[in-house]
Here is the input.
Amino acid sequence: MVDASPARPILSDFIAISIPTSIWAWVVIQSSFQSGWFSFICSGIVGFFLWLTSVAYGETRFSRMVIVGVTLSAILSLSSAIYTVSS
Here is the structure.
């Protein structure tokens, strides 16, 4: 049996983390840092459906990394919200 290359899990982890966080980055690039808090709605929904899909296929590592990505997106969105409220 052929084993997967060691780079495959790392690439999969990067994709799982970058999808929710890239939604925040896209909103910030297209509008402003102050409106980045709004992106969590979309990244949370996208992350939820990615998580459901990965759980359905039995990809536990990918599902954990999706949770990490959504958490990072929440932290970035919270930082945007705090900056908006404080300024």
User: Anything to note?
Assistant: The CA atoms of residues 11 and 45 lie 22 Å apart. The chain has one domain: 7-86. The longest helix spans residues 60-86.
